[in-house]
Amino acid sequence: MDELTVLDSLKSQFPDAVADALIDSQPPHIVCANVDKGKIVDVCSYLKDNLQFNRLSGITSVDFPEDGKFEVVYLIASYDHSVIVKLKAEVPRDDNPSIDTVIPVWWNANWYEREVYEFMGIYFDGHPEMTVLVLSDDMMGEWPLRKDYQEFPQTTAKYPYSDDQESIVEEKYPLEWKSWPTERHYLE
Amino acid sequence: MVNKHDVKKRMRQLAAEYIHEPQQEAYKLDDTEMMLHIGPQNPIQPGPFLIDLKISGETVRDSKLYMGYGHKGIEKILESMTYIQGLPVTDRICYLASLSNNEAYVSSVERLLDIEPPERSQYIRVIMQELSRIQSHLLGTGEYATDLGFVTMFLFMIREREYVLGLIEDITGARITHCFPRFGGVREDLPDGWREKAIDVLSMINEKCEMYKELFSSDRTYRMRTVDIGTLTKEDVIKAGLTGPALRATGIDYDVRKVYPTLTYPDIDFKVQTAKKGDIFNRVMVRINEIQESCWIIEQALDQMKPGPLFPDELPYGRRTPSMRVPPGEAYVPVEDPRGEMAMYIVSDGTDKPYRVKIRGPAFALMQGLPPMLENVYIADVPAIAASMDSCNSEVDR
Lengths: 188, 398
What we know:
The complex is a heterodimer. Chain A is an alpha/beta fold. Chain A has helices at residues 3-13, 40-51, 109-120, 165-172, 175-178, and strands at 18-23, 31-35, 55-64, 69-77, 85-92, 98-100, 123-125.
């Protein structure tokens, strides 16, 4: 099993769903492909059943607010051969971004999907338990890894000794203060 | 005008109502069952996490994990820092594997920059990786022995670990958080006389490992608590996506150093340590065998390395300044952590800061695979089984 076999097999099996498939020029020569959002479970089960991709290495997500999309990234490897496949599915950046769960294919997708949900707010349809994993309950709905999350670094929004907490925070910490400067200049 | 905080509160409420509904199912008990909470401060390992056991008599029927007590937001912090500023932060992912975390970060950024460190730097990095593995396995196994009431073993191992930490300290100047590799090389060369000192210490560790194996194998109480307990089959580990010693103890010879070789690992001769049964006893034995194998790797690296530069001649502009620009792209380079596959998925948009960093740690998979292992075991075996995975909560929570 090598990268070319996987690439050809993917392309021939899913001519419509898989786009821009290519092999990374540097080691570990990852096979990258963009997949239709609706076809992700089909592609994943094809990889697992026909090409021995029996190990899900991780699921993550990247936010692109300018393009109005999220990318859900699946990193898939195997115990039997050394090819890594990176699948990307675009999810529109609307009010309820969602994608199908891949738990039926790989059991260990469970926690990775929960993590993506609590940090980025992408819902996984069919997931048995979409609860917080590492964030606290009151952070649910903040989606802190989105690029428009404004409260980082959070000096703290909770003053226990103040009656009117919100207004104090708004006054004391204007918006510029709450986000890091996007570009810094150093002596080069 | 709508207050921003009101909107957020409402969003939180909606999310909480929505998400907590299915969770109640796990807590439905019949007449013979009860819930037992272990944690967040638990006897299993230093990191805090909560484990809810549904028990019937002495037997665990179901279990549920709650993580996140040590969440540091490292992925978000890395997005707000320049590449070189992010390097010390990667130390803090897991203090036992900080050199592996550095390595995963640095090698991914090197792929983006399209540079390769010279041979001497690569050998030094191999040495640091293996020293990191030795000290992590020594502490992990020792702590595990304390959980079983085998404190003598812990004291033996922590004593030997000090010598290894001394070797690391001689090179990096730090004991726990090293921040040692750099993009395209390493920070320091080996000091004078380090080679002789290292060979002394490593041969000593090698001898001690034989003693550990004898102690672990001959102690009757220890064997009663570990042999045929917490057994994982090949199907279990493949389903849970585990890597590292817990996987190799079941007989699958999967090692990232062999499968995705980086640095000078292809030039070094070493065997992937495996065992057959996959129970606790085998998992510990695999770790001790790996310590010996790491000693052998370091000795080979010391013999093979030649004097030379630490950085390549041609480096991207601004390498030594915080404002180094990294070309746009994505990189993912797996590295063999003491616990399994560690990798960072870095997305760059061409500026001086990473656009997104995803930390894929081995302990995350180990923790996720824990609840199926705890089904139908005795409560007294729960700490033994959970601690034998040598997981790290700091890395799960990040």
